[in-house]
């Protein structure tokens, strides 16, 4: 669709007029910072590579600013919004003229996404696009991956600092359990940063758009994903401690120092190494050896 024909909720005047018409006040507890910049929306839609064959899941449509763009580009859109006050706006006003959208008033963490993928896309992979509520970014992303729903990509606005953590490499201060979890399931690409002036109200942090492209096959092999993530979590719980001490101190793991020391020796790694120095492949090997 040509840019000049795009819907126009994405500016301060039109956003304010919808909010005033329905007497809506921003709900801080739901992380409501609505996008008011059409260029940013164009860039997000372009980055998500939505085609007329796609079924898109949008998390938190707000007043439908991005949803309108998605409806114009995709075959089918499912929009999950927790705030019930916004539902009449979406259904009776901003999305009323679109017949390819389903609006669900629910907490995204409680929705059966397998059923949605089945009903709306014959079980084929969904594309997810969102300007995420920042207070639950990590649970949402981890929930999407760990539920193993059919999923092609996730193109999302998040806090700039969180985007950096998702893409971080070993040995950096941003590197941690979130980096490893995201990089196990997907290829992360931070695409561009977004100034706070592009939102209403302005968030107190900078934002960035990141695309996570789901691997068809996991990029590394490990005998137990669950055990590997327990090891990763324990390794970063006490970041300044050596890996041996962090894992030994983790009460729910019950792995003794001698065992960890022996495995590090087998892996040719120094006994003083910290978790932040290990790659994903090394965490997989460490887990397999510790539990072999
Ligand atoms: N997509 C809109 C935009 O870009 O202008 C709004 C984005 S705003 C940052 C986040 C939206 O997510 C809000 O509409 C908020 O009510 C909704 N939200 C917050 N927590 C949610 C949850 N657990 N499940 C579904 N939606 C949620």
Pattern of helices and strands: HEHEHEHEHEHEHHEEEHHHH
Rg calc: 21 Å
CA-CA gap between termini:
56 Å
Bound molecules: S-adenosylmethionine
How do you describe this structure in short?
With 292 residues, the chain is α/β, with parallel strands linked by helices. Helices cover 39% and strands 18% of the residues.
Description:
With about 290 residues, the chain is α/β, with parallel strands linked by helices. The chain has twelve helices and nine strands. The strands form two sheets. It has a seven-stranded mixed beta sheet, with helices on both faces. Strands 1-8 form a two-stranded antiparallel sheet. The longest helix is centred in the C-terminal third of the chain and has 13 residues. S-adenosylmethionine binds next to strand 1, helix 3 and strand 3. The site of S-adenosylmethionine (SAM) has 22 residues, from strand 1, helix 3 and strand 3.
